[in-house]
Amino acid sequence: MTTKVALVTGAARGIGLAATELFLERGWQVAMVDRDGDELAAASGTLQGVHPIVADVSIPEQVDRMRNQALARFGRIDALVNNAGVALFSRAPSVSFEQWREVMATNLDGVFLCTQALTPALAETKGAIVNIASISGLRASTLRVAYGTSKAAVIHLTKQYAAELGEMGIRVNCIAPGPVRTKLAMAVHAPEIIAAYYDAIPLNRYGEPREIAEGIVFLCSENASFVTGQTLAVDGGFDATGVGLP
Ligand code: NAD
After folding, report:
1. Rounded mean pLDDT of the chain?
2. CA 167 / ligand 1 centre spacing (Å)
3. Which of 28, 54, 167, 209 has the fewest Cβ atoms within 10 angstroms?
């Protein structure tokens, strides 16, 4: 049987590392991509069936090299997980253009660049793409003028690509995670935000990276063979309630 290959961006830690581990458990091989070479080496060192690639998803030349290295190592790519992301929680009037561009470069340009670069390889395998957005892309609130806008754009980009790439047999879906205890979240979630999330989420807790990974691997699998253009909120019920973001 053919071993399937996933390329996961932002794979050195958090949700991307959890997705990598779950793909491996399900018998896939994984090209682990991250711009943090030290953290990527530490995360990938003990894993069998992975190929670490240091690349920044917001830089076109590095994305092309990433694709070439992954194809040289594995010869095929069955799934692309556009997970690399950065967060900025700051009141809108104080957000500089440089900060805005930094968020857009990774969260939005990175999804576009990786998708463009890997579309030919994914057309060969009739593969799948999963983009990682956020509940901040579903609901507007304070503090997230750049982050929330970048994630709302990823949700729409998912639908655009689903419409365009369906004729090639490529499915494109999106996950909107609620708060998950990772380095990214802990850097921007002040204590009052954490408390408010607990109140706003029916399941009364943060999610675990593994719970987001389950959604990612499902959407990349044959079990989701007729699902495309969708956004799956993995959020403890937050989106269902209509309560505002903390
Ligand atoms: P994390 O900070 O733990 O991991 C993100 C990884 O992406 C890091 O290893 C980082 O080095 C890498 N990365 C960042 N920019 C990159 C770039 N330009 N090129 C290559 N690698 C890059 O974050 P996480 O919480 O695991 O987040 C993963 C994704 O999930 C992000 O897109 C994030 O926006 C989204 N998300 C997270 C949460 C949460 O609460 N943690 C909630 C909703 C959505």
Report:
1. 96
2. 30
3. 167
CA 105/CA 113 separation, integer angstroms: 10
Structure tokens at 165: 């790439």
Please name the helix (run of DSSP H) or strand (run of DSSP E) that holds residue 188, with its range, or none: helix 183-188
Q: Is 206 a catalytic residue?
A: no
Mutate to test the pocket of ligand 1, among 184, 210, 232, 235 (most ligand atoms within 8 A of CB): 184
pLDDT at 186: 87
Tell me, what's the pLDDT at 51? 98
Which of 215, 211, 214 is closest to 201 using CA atoms? 211
User: Using CA positions, which residue lies closest to atom 33 of ligand 1?
Assistant: 85
Nearest residue (by CA) to ligand 1, atom 5, is 10
145, two tokens: 């003028």
17 neighbors 209 (Cβ within 8 angstroms): yes
Which two three-digit tokens encode residue 171? 């499915």
168 alpha carbon to ligand 1 midpoint, in Å? 29
Statement: residue 155 has pLDDT above 80: yes
Write down the residue that tokens 């991250």 correspond to. Answer: 34
- What are the b/e assignments for 164-190, b being 16+ CB within 10 Å? ebeeeebbbbbbbbbbbebebbeeebe
86 Cα–ligand 1 center, Å: 6
Residue 219 near residue 130 (C-beta atoms within 8 A) = yes
- pLDDT of 87 above 80: yes
